[in-house]
Amino acid sequence: MLEPNYLSDFRCKARKCRTSCCTGWKIRLSSNDISMLSNCDAGPDLRRRIEKGIDLYGFITEDSRRCPLLDTDGLCSLRKECGLDPMPEPCKAFPLTERAFPENVRTATAACERIVELLWEDENPLSLNGSPDKPEKPTEKGLISARKTALALISNRLWSLDQRMKALLGFVEELSKAGACISPAAVRCAANALQVPLKTTVSFCSQDVIGFLKMIILPLASGKGSVHNDADTVLRSLVEAEISNSTTDLKIRSTFFSERFPKREIWFEKILANHILYTGFPYSGRFADLKLEAASLVSFYALMKLFSGILKPQSIDDLVDIIVRLSRAFEHGNADLVSARCFSSIGMQDYGLLYAAAVFL
Ligand code: SF4
Predict the structure, then answer these.
(1) Is 27 helix (H, G, I), strand (E, B) or coil?
(2) 21 lines ligand 1 (CB under 6 A)
(3) Nearest residue CA, atom 8 of ligand 1?
(4) What is the predicted pLDDT for the residue at 110?
(5) pLDDT digit string (tens) for 332-345?
(6) Is any ligand 1 atom within 6 A of the Cβ of residue 113?
(7) N or C: less crowded end of the chain, CB within 10 Å?
(8) Does any ligand 1 atom lie closer than 6 A to the CB of residue 175?
(9) Which ligand 1 atom sits closest to the C-alpha of 12?
């Protein structure tokens, strides 16, 4: 099993966590989860909370935006009283996910603040520990190679992060020409073509960029295709309070952010590399069209830069909180789908505007 190098250091922050995974979500329970919860050896108080928490649709409800089983000390009452066994699978696993395709990888989501902190504590590029534990099928070799190339590109510090994003988009663009059958040779060929997009310049109108970012954010913030979690609220407040049409204002905020966080480029690189690994980019299985995968990735990058600039984070903790919320929208909600849909709805044939949005801010 492969896993990112920071994972062995992961320990849940529990009561010290500011944005606990037990707040603001609706947890989908399987029939097995419900059965385990119904039959566990819970005392009367915990039993009452379990019964109250499971609704007809198999969700733990969270009227108060907290899991009803979360104690005031920040710990899970079910785990304390009954151990790990009856816990619903999503709760047991979070923030980890194991993926079997195209290779066995254990990954972790940046929706957990401890994961973001771990990513930033080590400033070296993200690397993988362990070794592949299943033979590579010939049909999967190209996919594995594409993933490795995407990670290598985003971690190449000889280029600025904006250049790397642009190169990555160029790579995906070339790769999409290979059609459904991605071979290692097609990946090499796409990687070799990267010099071309790096040399081109993108012309854009800054008002279009702001308009486009709003187009992505508004459906998320309005609750259409709601992500049913905290990210909705955050995105809504951002739209209502913060996004102005003034590009000058944005530039001032962006400069403030750059000065306050000189290591931001390394940190954003680490978040993007982790996102690539976590989502399985560029073959997540969510989009038939690779360009939509790329649109989703660059939207995540653009919004990460936008929110980091406009919210004026004062401390690393503030910045971690922004990344966590955005990651909840993109890695656990449908922000990736919404942003990719926005991209395709305006019929753009290339990544110009999206890319410009990312580099501009
Ligand atoms: S978000 Fe991460 S650190 Fe916080 S309570 Fe959940 S698993 Fe622990």
Answers:
(1) strand
(2) yes
(3) 12
(4) 96
(5) 877 788 887 777 77
(6) yes
(7) N
(8) no
(9) 8
Written as one string, the DSSP assignment of 98-132 is EE-SSS-EEEE-TTSHHHHHHHHHS-SPP-EES--
Is this prediction's pTM over 0.85? Answer: yes
Residue nearest (by alpha carbon) to ligand 1 atom 7: 12
* Residue extents of the structural domains in the chain: 22-93, 206-358
Task: Please state the rounded mean pLDDT for residues 24-47.
Answer: 87
How does strand 3-4 pair with strand 27-28? unpaired
**What's residue 226's pLDDT?**
42
Q: Does the Cβ of 332 fall within 6 Å of ligand 1? A: no
Q: Does residue 4's CB lie within 6 angstroms of at least one atom of ligand 1?
A: no
Encoding tokens for residue 276?
């690539």
Return the DSSP state at 361.
Answer: -
Cβ 274 vs Cβ 108: under 8 Å: yes
Q: Count of residues for the chain?
A: 361
C-alpha–C-alpha distance, residues 298 and 339, integer Å = 9
- DSSP output for 295-324: HHHHHHHHHHHHHHHHT---SHHHHHHHHH
User: Does the structure show a pLDDT above 70 at 234?
Assistant: no
CB 150 within 8 A of CB 162: no
**How many Cβ atoms from other residues are within 10 Å of residue 168's Cβ?**
28
Q: Is the CB of 230 under 6 A from ligand 1?
A: no
